[in-house]
Amino acid sequence: MSDKSPRQSKSAKSSKSIKEKRADKRDKAAGAATSSMEELTAKKKR
User: Fold this and answer.
1) Cα angle value 24/27/28 (rounded, 5°)
2) pLDDT single digits (tens) 1-46
3) Could you tell me the pTM of the whole model?
4) Residue 22 has what pLDDT?
5) Residues 6+ apart with CB under 8 A from 35
6) Distance in angstroms (rounded) separating the CA atoms of residues 13 and 9
7) Where are the domains of the chain?
8) Which residues contact 24 (CB under 8 A, 6 or more apart)?
9) Distance CA 25, CA 34 (A)
10) pLDDT score at 34
11) CB atoms within 10 A of CB 33
12) What is the C-alpha separation between 24 and 18, in angstroms, rounded?
C-alpha cells in the first residue's frame, strides 16, 4: 500500500495573497477610470 500522507511541495508561495492582488487590480482600474474622466472633463470649452 502506498503512502497517502500529503507531500511537501517545493513551489514557493506567491508574494501576494489573492486578496492583495484583487485590491491592487481594483485600485488600478479605479485610477484609470478617474484619469480618463478627468481628461474628458478637463478639455477647454469653446
Assistant:
1) 85
2) 677 887 776 666 667 888 999 999 988 887 766 666 677 776 666 6
3) 0.39
4) 92
5) none
6) 10
7) 18-46
8) 16
9) 14
10) 65
11) 10
12) 10
Burial of residue 40, with CB atoms counted within 10 A of its CB: 0-12 exposed, 13-18 middle, 19 or more buried: exposed
Can you give the three-state secondary structure of the chain, one letter per residue?
CCCCCCCCCCCCCCCCCHHHHHHHHHHHHHHHHHHHHHHHHCCCCC
Could you tell me the three cell numbers for 11? 513551489
The position carrying cell 486578496 is 19
C-alpha 22/C-alpha 16 separation (Å) is: 10
Instruction: Tell me the residue type at 20.
Output: E
| Residue at grid coordinates 500522507 | 5
